[in-house]
Amino acid sequence: MDNLTQQIFSENMLQYLNGSPTAYHAVENAAVMLRNHDFQELKETEKWSLHAGGKYFVVNNHSCIIAFTVGGGDLAQEGFRIIGAHTDSPGLKIKPGACMLTPDGYVKLNVEVYGSAILSTWFDRPLAMAGRVIVKQGGGLVERLVKIDKPVCMIPNLCIHFNRDSNTNCSYNKQTDILPLLSMKEEGMEKGDYLFELIQKETGIEKTDILDYELFLYEYQKGIFMGPNEEFISASRIDNLCMVYAGLSALLESEEDGKKCKVFAAFDHEEVGSASAQGAYSDFLPHTLERISKNLGLTDDACFQAIANSTSISADTAHAVHPNYSDKHDSESCPVLCGGPVIKYSASQRYSTNAFSAAYFMEACRRAQVPYQKYVNRNDIVGGSTIGPALSSLTTIPTVDIGTPVLAMHSIREFGAVVDNFYAKEAFRAYYEDKEA
Ligand code: ZN
After folding, report:
1. Is the model's pLDDT at 368 over the cut of 90?
2. What is the whole-number distance in angstroms between the Cα of residue 37 and the centre of ligand 1?
3. Is the CATH number 2.30.250.10 carried by domain 91-219?
Protein backbone atom coordinates (compact mmCIF):
# COMPACT_ATOMS: atom_id res chain seq x y z
CA MET A 1 0.00 0.00 0.00
CA ASP A 2 1.42 3.38 -1.02
CA ASN A 3 1.80 5.46 2.17
CA LEU A 4 1.74 8.82 0.40
CA THR A 5 -1.47 7.93 -1.46
CA GLN A 6 -3.01 6.85 1.82
CA GLN A 7 -1.89 10.02 3.56
CA ILE A 8 -3.29 12.30 0.86
CA PHE A 9 -6.60 10.42 0.91
CA SER A 10 -6.80 10.67 4.72
CA GLU A 11 -5.99 14.38 4.83
CA ASN A 12 -8.57 15.13 2.16
CA MET A 13 -11.12 13.01 3.99
CA LEU A 14 -10.53 14.93 7.24
CA GLN A 15 -10.87 18.19 5.35
CA TYR A 16 -14.19 16.95 3.93
CA LEU A 17 -15.42 16.04 7.44
CA ASN A 18 -14.35 19.34 8.93
CA GLY A 19 -15.84 21.32 6.06
CA SER A 20 -19.22 19.56 6.16
CA PRO A 21 -21.00 20.38 9.44
CA THR A 22 -24.45 19.52 8.04
CA ALA A 23 -25.95 17.26 5.37
CA TYR A 24 -26.34 20.35 3.16
CA HIS A 25 -22.63 21.08 3.31
CA ALA A 26 -21.76 17.40 2.82
CA VAL A 27 -23.75 17.45 -0.42
CA GLU A 28 -22.39 20.84 -1.49
CA ASN A 29 -18.81 19.64 -1.00
CA ALA A 30 -19.56 16.34 -2.76
CA ALA A 31 -20.92 18.34 -5.72
CA VAL A 32 -17.69 20.37 -5.84
CA MET A 33 -15.65 17.15 -5.97
CA LEU A 34 -17.86 15.78 -8.74
CA ARG A 35 -17.72 18.98 -10.84
CA ASN A 36 -13.93 18.98 -10.48
CA HIS A 37 -13.98 15.53 -12.08
CA ASP A 38 -16.18 16.66 -14.99
CA PHE A 39 -19.45 15.26 -13.68
CA GLN A 40 -22.42 17.11 -15.11
CA GLU A 41 -25.22 18.18 -12.78
CA LEU A 42 -28.71 17.08 -13.83
CA LYS A 43 -31.90 18.66 -12.51
CA GLU A 44 -34.87 16.42 -11.71
CA THR A 45 -37.10 19.11 -13.21
CA GLU A 46 -35.31 19.18 -16.57
CA LYS A 47 -34.95 16.80 -19.50
CA TRP A 48 -32.02 14.36 -19.35
CA SER A 49 -29.94 13.24 -22.34
CA LEU A 50 -27.59 10.54 -21.09
CA HIS A 51 -24.98 8.73 -23.14
CA ALA A 52 -22.44 5.96 -22.67
CA GLY A 53 -19.29 7.25 -21.00
CA GLY A 54 -21.18 10.18 -19.43
CA LYS A 55 -20.74 11.20 -15.78
CA TYR A 56 -23.62 12.81 -13.93
CA PHE A 57 -25.09 13.73 -10.57
CA VAL A 58 -28.46 14.83 -9.28
CA VAL A 59 -29.25 16.51 -5.95
CA ASN A 60 -32.45 16.30 -3.93
CA ASN A 61 -33.25 18.93 -1.27
CA HIS A 62 -29.56 19.86 -1.14
CA SER A 63 -29.12 17.07 1.44
CA CYS A 64 -29.22 13.93 -0.72
CA ILE A 65 -27.18 13.18 -3.84
CA ILE A 66 -26.89 10.47 -6.48
CA ALA A 67 -23.85 10.41 -8.75
CA PHE A 68 -23.40 7.92 -11.56
CA THR A 69 -21.33 7.00 -14.57
CA VAL A 70 -22.80 5.31 -17.62
CA GLY A 71 -20.80 2.27 -18.69
CA GLY A 72 -20.25 1.10 -22.23
CA GLY A 73 -21.89 -2.31 -21.76
CA ASP A 74 -25.44 -3.56 -22.21
CA LEU A 75 -27.13 -2.11 -19.11
CA ALA A 76 -29.85 -4.79 -19.08
CA GLN A 77 -27.17 -7.45 -18.73
CA GLU A 78 -24.57 -5.53 -16.73
CA GLY A 79 -26.89 -3.85 -14.22
CA PHE A 80 -25.93 -1.16 -11.73
CA ARG A 81 -23.12 -1.24 -9.19
CA ILE A 82 -24.42 0.82 -6.27
CA ILE A 83 -22.81 2.18 -3.10
CA GLY A 84 -25.06 4.00 -0.63
CA ALA A 85 -24.27 6.03 2.50
CA HIS A 86 -25.87 8.83 4.52
CA THR A 87 -25.11 12.53 4.87
CA ASP A 88 -26.72 13.30 8.25
CA SER A 89 -25.34 12.90 11.78
CA PRO A 90 -26.98 13.00 15.21
CA GLY A 91 -26.89 16.36 16.94
CA LEU A 92 -28.86 19.40 18.02
CA LYS A 93 -31.17 21.30 15.70
CA ILE A 94 -32.33 24.83 16.44
CA LYS A 95 -36.09 24.97 16.92
CA PRO A 96 -38.43 27.54 15.38
CA GLY A 97 -38.73 30.21 18.04
CA ALA A 98 -35.03 29.89 18.61
CA CYS A 99 -34.25 32.34 21.38
CA MET A 100 -35.36 32.29 24.98
CA LEU A 101 -34.77 35.05 27.51
CA THR A 102 -34.38 34.04 31.16
CA PRO A 103 -35.28 36.24 34.13
CA ASP A 104 -31.55 36.23 34.96
CA GLY A 105 -30.76 37.98 31.69
CA TYR A 106 -29.42 35.05 29.68
CA VAL A 107 -30.26 34.42 26.04
CA LYS A 108 -30.60 30.69 25.44
CA LEU A 109 -31.15 28.76 22.24
CA ASN A 110 -34.13 26.46 22.02
CA VAL A 111 -32.97 23.19 20.43
CA GLU A 112 -34.32 19.75 19.67
CA VAL A 113 -32.37 16.51 19.57
CA TYR A 114 -31.78 15.11 16.09
CA GLY A 115 -31.23 11.34 16.09
CA SER A 116 -29.73 9.38 18.97
CA ALA A 117 -26.89 11.69 19.99
CA ILE A 118 -24.89 10.96 23.16
CA LEU A 119 -26.01 14.16 24.88
CA SER A 120 -23.37 14.23 27.61
CA THR A 121 -20.70 14.78 24.94
CA TRP A 122 -22.30 18.07 23.85
CA PHE A 123 -21.62 19.80 27.18
CA ASP A 124 -18.79 22.27 27.80
CA ARG A 125 -17.78 22.44 24.15
CA PRO A 126 -17.76 25.62 22.10
CA LEU A 127 -20.48 25.12 19.49
CA ALA A 128 -20.83 26.68 16.05
CA MET A 129 -23.90 26.86 13.84
CA ALA A 130 -24.67 25.83 10.25
CA GLY A 131 -27.46 24.84 7.92
CA ARG A 132 -29.58 26.71 5.43
CA VAL A 133 -32.00 29.61 5.26
CA ILE A 134 -34.71 30.30 2.72
CA VAL A 135 -34.71 33.91 1.56
CA LYS A 136 -36.83 36.07 -0.70
CA GLN A 137 -34.95 37.01 -3.83
CA GLY A 138 -36.19 38.51 -7.11
CA GLY A 139 -39.78 37.59 -6.40
CA GLY A 140 -38.89 33.95 -5.69
CA LEU A 141 -37.57 31.80 -2.86
CA VAL A 142 -33.90 30.93 -2.76
CA GLU A 143 -31.93 28.62 -0.51
CA ARG A 144 -28.70 29.91 0.99
CA LEU A 145 -26.27 27.71 2.90
CA VAL A 146 -25.10 29.21 6.17
CA LYS A 147 -21.98 28.36 8.14
CA ILE A 148 -21.15 30.48 11.17
CA ASP A 149 -17.86 28.79 11.90
CA LYS A 150 -17.31 30.52 15.22
CA PRO A 151 -17.75 29.34 18.81
CA VAL A 152 -21.07 31.13 19.33
CA CYS A 153 -22.70 29.08 22.09
CA MET A 154 -22.12 26.49 24.80
CA ILE A 155 -24.08 24.06 26.99
CA PRO A 156 -22.44 24.39 30.42
CA ASN A 157 -22.46 21.41 32.75
CA LEU A 158 -23.98 21.82 36.18
CA CYS A 159 -21.08 22.02 38.62
CA ILE A 160 -20.40 18.93 40.70
CA HIS A 161 -21.16 20.89 43.92
CA PHE A 162 -24.82 21.10 42.84
CA ASN A 163 -24.91 17.57 41.50
CA ARG A 164 -22.91 15.20 43.64
CA ASP A 165 -24.12 12.30 41.47
CA SER A 166 -22.34 13.71 38.39
CA ASN A 167 -20.00 10.74 38.12
CA THR A 168 -22.31 8.00 39.27
CA ASN A 169 -25.86 8.59 38.12
CA CYS A 170 -26.18 11.23 35.47
CA SER A 171 -29.14 11.74 33.16
CA TYR A 172 -30.32 14.70 31.15
CA ASN A 173 -33.77 16.09 30.50
CA LYS A 174 -33.89 16.70 26.75
CA GLN A 175 -36.28 19.62 27.08
CA THR A 176 -34.63 21.61 29.83
CA ASP A 177 -31.00 20.53 30.42
CA ILE A 178 -29.41 20.86 26.99
CA LEU A 179 -30.24 24.43 25.99
CA PRO A 180 -27.09 26.31 24.96
CA LEU A 181 -26.24 29.75 26.28
CA LEU A 182 -25.98 32.18 23.35
CA SER A 183 -25.62 35.64 24.82
CA MET A 184 -26.63 38.15 27.48
CA LYS A 185 -29.85 40.08 27.11
CA GLU A 186 -29.41 43.59 25.70
CA GLU A 187 -31.53 46.58 26.48
CA GLY A 188 -34.47 46.97 24.11
CA MET A 189 -33.78 43.87 22.04
CA GLU A 190 -36.65 41.50 21.34
CA LYS A 191 -35.98 37.80 21.86
CA GLY A 192 -36.85 36.98 18.23
CA ASP A 193 -34.04 39.23 17.00
CA TYR A 194 -30.95 37.52 18.36
CA LEU A 195 -30.59 34.63 15.92
CA PHE A 196 -31.50 36.69 12.85
CA GLU A 197 -29.13 39.48 13.95
CA LEU A 198 -26.36 36.92 14.26
CA ILE A 199 -27.06 35.46 10.80
CA GLN A 200 -27.13 38.94 9.26
CA LYS A 201 -23.90 39.95 10.98
CA GLU A 202 -22.02 36.78 10.01
CA THR A 203 -23.38 36.15 6.50
CA GLY A 204 -24.63 39.50 5.21
CA ILE A 205 -28.08 38.03 4.56
CA GLU A 206 -30.67 40.68 5.45
CA LYS A 207 -32.65 39.44 8.42
CA THR A 208 -35.87 40.76 6.92
CA ASP A 209 -35.33 38.53 3.86
CA ILE A 210 -35.11 35.32 5.89
CA LEU A 211 -38.38 33.40 5.79
CA ASP A 212 -37.30 30.21 7.53
CA TYR A 213 -34.24 28.17 8.51
CA GLU A 214 -32.92 24.70 9.23
CA LEU A 215 -29.90 25.22 11.45
CA PHE A 216 -27.83 22.75 13.45
CA LEU A 217 -25.17 23.17 16.09
CA TYR A 218 -21.80 21.52 15.62
CA GLU A 219 -18.55 21.26 17.52
CA TYR A 220 -16.34 24.24 16.73
CA GLN A 221 -13.10 22.33 17.40
CA LYS A 222 -11.98 20.54 14.25
CA GLY A 223 -11.28 16.85 13.81
CA ILE A 224 -7.68 15.69 14.10
CA PHE A 225 -5.41 12.72 13.52
CA MET A 226 -4.04 11.44 16.79
CA GLY A 227 -2.21 8.61 18.56
CA PRO A 228 1.57 8.07 18.80
CA ASN A 229 1.72 7.48 15.04
CA GLU A 230 -1.36 9.50 14.07
CA GLU A 231 -3.03 6.19 13.35
CA PHE A 232 -6.40 7.36 14.71
CA ILE A 233 -8.91 9.98 13.78
CA SER A 234 -10.94 11.93 16.35
CA ALA A 235 -13.66 13.99 14.71
CA SER A 236 -17.32 14.83 14.51
CA ARG A 237 -19.49 13.10 11.90
CA ILE A 238 -17.15 10.15 11.21
CA ASP A 239 -20.55 8.38 11.06
CA ASN A 240 -21.14 8.69 8.22
CA LEU A 241 -19.12 11.21 6.26
CA CYS A 242 -16.09 8.89 6.19
CA MET A 243 -18.16 6.44 4.18
CA VAL A 244 -19.57 9.21 1.98
CA TYR A 245 -16.05 10.38 1.23
CA ALA A 246 -14.70 6.85 0.66
CA GLY A 247 -17.58 5.92 -1.66
CA LEU A 248 -17.38 9.13 -3.62
CA SER A 249 -13.59 8.86 -3.94
CA ALA A 250 -13.94 5.30 -5.22
CA LEU A 251 -16.39 6.49 -7.88
CA LEU A 252 -14.03 9.29 -8.94
CA GLU A 253 -10.94 7.09 -8.97
CA SER A 254 -12.35 3.96 -10.58
CA GLU A 255 -11.50 3.51 -14.22
CA GLU A 256 -13.86 5.08 -16.70
CA ASP A 257 -14.03 2.51 -19.48
CA GLY A 258 -15.97 -0.11 -17.52
CA LYS A 259 -19.12 -1.81 -18.81
CA LYS A 260 -21.28 -1.25 -15.76
CA CYS A 261 -23.26 1.74 -14.63
CA LYS A 262 -21.64 2.86 -11.37
CA VAL A 263 -23.85 4.63 -8.83
CA PHE A 264 -23.07 6.42 -5.59
CA ALA A 265 -26.00 7.58 -3.45
CA ALA A 266 -25.90 9.51 -0.16
CA PHE A 267 -29.21 9.99 1.65
CA ASP A 268 -30.38 12.33 4.39
CA HIS A 269 -32.36 11.40 7.53
CA GLU A 270 -30.82 7.96 8.23
CA GLU A 271 -30.41 8.94 11.86
CA VAL A 272 -34.16 9.46 12.22
CA GLY A 273 -35.38 6.43 10.27
CA SER A 274 -34.85 7.36 6.59
CA ALA A 275 -38.55 8.04 5.92
CA SER A 276 -38.50 11.36 4.07
CA ALA A 277 -38.32 12.61 0.50
CA GLN A 278 -34.53 12.71 0.90
CA GLY A 279 -34.20 9.53 2.92
CA ALA A 280 -33.33 6.02 1.81
CA TYR A 281 -37.00 4.99 2.15
CA SER A 282 -37.95 7.47 -0.58
CA ASP A 283 -38.30 6.54 -4.24
CA PHE A 284 -35.40 8.79 -5.19
CA LEU A 285 -32.99 5.95 -5.95
CA PRO A 286 -35.49 3.56 -7.66
CA HIS A 287 -36.82 6.47 -9.75
CA THR A 288 -33.33 7.54 -10.71
CA LEU A 289 -32.30 4.01 -11.73
CA GLU A 290 -35.45 3.68 -13.84
CA ARG A 291 -34.94 7.12 -15.37
CA ILE A 292 -31.33 6.30 -16.28
CA SER A 293 -32.44 3.02 -17.90
CA LYS A 294 -35.26 4.54 -19.90
CA ASN A 295 -33.21 7.54 -20.92
CA LEU A 296 -30.64 5.12 -22.38
CA GLY A 297 -33.41 3.52 -24.44
CA LEU A 298 -34.15 0.40 -22.39
CA THR A 299 -37.61 -1.16 -22.68
CA ASP A 300 -39.67 -1.77 -19.53
CA ASP A 301 -38.61 -5.40 -19.59
CA ALA A 302 -34.94 -4.46 -20.01
CA CYS A 303 -35.26 -2.06 -17.03
CA PHE A 304 -36.35 -4.98 -14.85
CA GLN A 305 -33.43 -7.00 -16.18
CA ALA A 306 -31.00 -4.20 -15.33
CA ILE A 307 -32.32 -4.05 -11.75
CA ALA A 308 -32.15 -7.84 -11.41
CA ASN A 309 -28.53 -7.82 -12.57
CA SER A 310 -27.50 -5.14 -10.05
CA THR A 311 -25.76 -5.30 -6.67
CA SER A 312 -25.33 -2.75 -3.91
CA ILE A 313 -23.32 -1.88 -0.82
CA SER A 314 -24.76 -0.02 2.17
CA ALA A 315 -21.77 1.76 3.72
CA ASP A 316 -22.11 2.94 7.32
CA THR A 317 -19.79 2.87 10.29
CA ALA A 318 -19.61 -0.32 12.39
CA HIS A 319 -19.10 -1.07 16.09
CA ALA A 320 -15.47 -1.79 16.93
CA VAL A 321 -15.06 -3.75 20.15
CA HIS A 322 -14.53 -1.28 22.99
CA PRO A 323 -11.27 -1.64 24.96
CA ASN A 324 -13.19 -1.23 28.27
CA TYR A 325 -16.48 -2.92 27.36
CA SER A 326 -15.62 -5.99 25.33
CA ASP A 327 -18.59 -7.84 26.87
CA LYS A 328 -20.91 -5.73 24.71
CA HIS A 329 -19.84 -7.81 21.71
CA ASP A 330 -20.53 -11.41 20.81
CA SER A 331 -17.32 -13.15 21.89
CA GLU A 332 -16.80 -14.57 18.39
CA SER A 333 -17.48 -11.30 16.61
CA CYS A 334 -15.19 -8.54 17.79
CA PRO A 335 -14.03 -6.21 15.01
CA VAL A 336 -11.10 -3.99 15.96
CA LEU A 337 -9.78 -0.65 14.77
CA CYS A 338 -7.23 -0.99 11.95
CA GLY A 339 -8.65 -4.40 11.00
CA GLY A 340 -10.40 -3.25 7.82
CA PRO A 341 -14.05 -2.75 6.86
CA VAL A 342 -16.64 -4.76 8.78
CA ILE A 343 -19.36 -6.88 7.14
CA LYS A 344 -22.49 -6.61 9.31
CA TYR A 345 -24.97 -9.46 9.69
CA SER A 346 -28.40 -9.54 11.30
CA ALA A 347 -30.86 -12.44 11.07
CA SER A 348 -33.66 -9.99 11.85
CA GLN A 349 -32.59 -7.92 8.81
CA ARG A 350 -31.51 -4.80 10.66
CA TYR A 351 -28.55 -5.21 8.32
CA SER A 352 -29.28 -6.42 4.80
CA THR A 353 -26.24 -8.66 4.29
CA ASN A 354 -26.80 -12.18 2.99
CA ALA A 355 -24.28 -14.84 2.03
CA PHE A 356 -24.27 -13.74 -1.63
CA SER A 357 -23.84 -10.02 -0.94
CA ALA A 358 -21.16 -10.70 1.69
CA ALA A 359 -19.36 -12.86 -0.85
CA TYR A 360 -19.13 -10.18 -3.54
CA PHE A 361 -17.84 -7.69 -0.99
CA MET A 362 -15.26 -10.23 0.27
CA GLU A 363 -14.20 -10.73 -3.34
CA ALA A 364 -13.81 -6.95 -3.77
CA CYS A 365 -11.60 -6.88 -0.64
CA ARG A 366 -9.53 -9.76 -2.00
CA ARG A 367 -9.03 -7.97 -5.32
CA ALA A 368 -8.11 -4.75 -3.49
CA GLN A 369 -5.82 -6.72 -1.16
CA VAL A 370 -7.40 -5.28 1.99
CA PRO A 371 -8.52 -7.13 5.13
CA TYR A 372 -12.13 -7.33 6.29
CA GLN A 373 -13.92 -8.34 9.49
CA LYS A 374 -17.36 -9.62 10.42
CA TYR A 375 -19.88 -8.41 12.98
CA VAL A 376 -23.12 -9.72 14.42
CA ASN A 377 -24.91 -8.36 17.51
CA ARG A 378 -25.15 -10.23 20.79
CA ASN A 379 -28.59 -11.86 20.99
CA ASP A 380 -29.46 -9.70 24.01
CA ILE A 381 -28.50 -6.37 22.40
CA VAL A 382 -30.64 -4.94 19.62
CA GLY A 383 -27.98 -2.71 18.04
CA GLY A 384 -28.45 -0.14 15.31
CA SER A 385 -29.55 -0.22 11.72
CA THR A 386 -28.57 1.44 8.44
CA ILE A 387 -29.94 2.41 5.04
CA GLY A 388 -29.31 -1.22 3.95
CA PRO A 389 -32.83 -2.55 4.67
CA ALA A 390 -34.37 0.44 2.84
CA LEU A 391 -32.05 0.08 -0.12
CA SER A 392 -32.59 -3.65 -0.54
CA SER A 393 -36.36 -3.71 0.11
CA LEU A 394 -37.19 -0.76 -2.18
CA THR A 395 -34.99 -1.78 -5.08
CA THR A 396 -34.99 -5.61 -4.59
CA ILE A 397 -31.25 -5.43 -5.29
CA PRO A 398 -28.96 -7.61 -3.13
CA THR A 399 -27.23 -5.42 -0.54
CA VAL A 400 -24.31 -5.93 1.80
CA ASP A 401 -24.03 -3.81 4.94
CA ILE A 402 -20.46 -2.86 5.66
CA GLY A 403 -18.58 -0.04 7.35
CA THR A 404 -15.38 1.04 8.96
CA PRO A 405 -15.12 0.17 12.67
CA VAL A 406 -15.47 3.10 15.09
CA LEU A 407 -15.65 3.77 18.81
CA ALA A 408 -17.89 6.35 20.51
CA MET A 409 -20.48 6.17 17.72
CA HIS A 410 -22.92 9.13 17.99
CA SER A 411 -20.66 11.05 20.37
CA ILE A 412 -20.03 14.64 19.30
CA ARG A 413 -16.49 13.33 18.65
CA GLU A 414 -16.25 9.85 17.26
CA PHE A 415 -13.10 7.79 17.03
CA GLY A 416 -11.75 5.62 14.25
CA ALA A 417 -8.60 4.44 12.54
CA VAL A 418 -7.12 6.21 9.55
CA VAL A 419 -6.22 3.07 7.64
CA ASP A 420 -9.71 1.55 7.77
CA ASN A 421 -11.22 4.30 5.64
CA PHE A 422 -8.50 3.88 3.06
CA TYR A 423 -9.11 0.12 3.06
CA ALA A 424 -12.82 0.76 2.53
CA LYS A 425 -12.15 3.14 -0.36
CA GLU A 426 -9.88 0.58 -2.01
CA ALA A 427 -12.51 -2.15 -1.58
CA PHE A 428 -15.17 0.15 -3.07
CA ARG A 429 -12.94 0.89 -6.04
CA ALA A 430 -12.37 -2.82 -6.64
CA TYR A 431 -16.15 -3.37 -6.38
CA TYR A 432 -16.80 -0.72 -9.03
CA GLU A 433 -13.99 -1.90 -11.31
CA ASP A 434 -14.75 -5.61 -11.05
CA LYS A 435 -11.32 -6.78 -12.19
CA GLU A 436 -8.31 -8.50 -10.68
CA ALA A 437 -5.72 -6.22 -9.05
ZN1 ZN B 1 -24.53 5.92 10.37
Report:
1. yes
2. 27
3. yes
C-alpha 52 – ligand 1 centre gap (Å): 33
pLDDT tens, 300-352?
999 999 999 999 999 999 999 999 999 999 999 999 999 999 999 999 999 99
The amino acid occupying position 142 is V
What pTM was computed for the model?
0.97
Residue 401 · residue 343 · CB < 8 Å: yes
Residue 382 has pLDDT above 90, yes or no: no
C-alpha 297/C-alpha 231 separation (Å) is 49
Tell me if residue 16 falls in helix, strand or coil.
helix
Q: How confident is the model at residue 61 (pLDDT cuts 50, 70, 90)?
A: very high
**180 alpha carbon to ligand 1 midpoint, in Å?**
25
pLDDT at position 437: 61
Give me the residue spans of the domains in the chain.
Answer: 3-89+236-433, 91-219
Q: Is 253 helix (H, G, I), strand (E, B) or coil?
A: helix
What residue type is 200 in one-letter code? Q
Distance 102 CA to ligand 1 centre (A): 36
* pLDDT tens digits, 393-432: 999 999 999 999 999 999 999 999 999 999 999 999 999 9
User: Is the CB of residue 428 less than 8 Å from the CB of residue 245?
Assistant: no
Position 295 scores a pLDDT of 97
Predicted pLDDT of residue 186: 86
Ligand 1 mean position to 390 CA, how many Å? 14
Distance 240 CA to ligand 1 centre (A): 5
Alpha-carbon distance of 134 to 118, in angstroms, equals: 30
Q: How far is the CA of 345 from the centre of ligand 1 (A)?
A: 15
Residue 280 CA to ligand 1 centre (angstroms)? 12
101 DSSP β-pair partners: 107
Return all residues near 372 (Cβ < 8 A) that are at least 6 apart.
340, 341, 342, 343, 361, 362, 365, 402, 427
Identify the CATH number of the domain defined by range 3-89+236-433: 3.40.630.10
pLDDT at 1 over 60: no
Closest CA to 152 of 105, 101, 214, 216: 216
Tell me the CA–centroid distance for residue 54 and ligand 1, in Å. Answer: 30
- Sign of the Cα torsion 128, 27, 93, 403 reads negative
